What we know:
Blueprint: H1 2-9, H2 26-30, E1 39-41, E2 49-52, H3 59-70, H4 77-91, H5 94-97, E3 100-103, H6 108-114, H7 118-130, E4 133-134, E5 139-141, H8 154-161, E6 165-167, H9 172-175, E7 179-187, H10 191-200, E8 207-215
Parallel strand pairs: 2-8, 3-4, 3-7, 7-8
Antiparallel strand pairs: 1-2, 5-6
Helix pairs in contact: 4-7
Amino acid sequence: MWKTIFELFFPIICLGCKKPGSLICPSCFRKIPLHKKGSLKSNQTNLDKLIIATYYNNPLVKQMIYRYKYDFIKDLSKPLAKLMIRQLNKSLELRSEDPMLIPIPLHKKRLKWRGFNQAHLLSLEIAQGLNILTNDKVLSRVKHSQPQMSIKSSKKRRENIKSVFKVNPDFKDEINNKTIILIDDVSTTGATLEEAARTLKELKPKQIWGLVIARG
């Protein structure tokens, strides 16, 4: 009821063309390009592949990501995940890989501030869209570190994220010899995905890939 009343006074309009009715209208969504390279062989030690859905320098994509993360518009998880699904379908033969999605976790303090984990919502949408497994209990964030986007140096980003994750050994049998796809919103240096992959290695997955909306 409250949502309906709110929308009467503050109608939903497309972030692209300002047409009322949806956050991203079908016409504007179709204009968002998929990343041409799509699936990249990672130059990281523990991450086998990095899949990038689209381009961060696209003005609409940049706005969508910002509004999703910092204006807390959770409904943007749907179109953003749809871009990730399109790229994943284009890049991979999912059925043969039997993957599991694992979202990059937030520390409980950050989660309390934002109210939701943006990577977790994306993983839920992707899992539903492709009928594959997702699990947000395998990996946890045990240290409250400085936000990566506020750090410019690649070296300092790696130092900032070092040892912030912990695996849950209860899921060892589920992870063993399975392809894991780590879900995050934006990757810049790849330090967060690399550290998460390094932490997950102890559960002996078959491969570890990263999937992000864009590369910042």
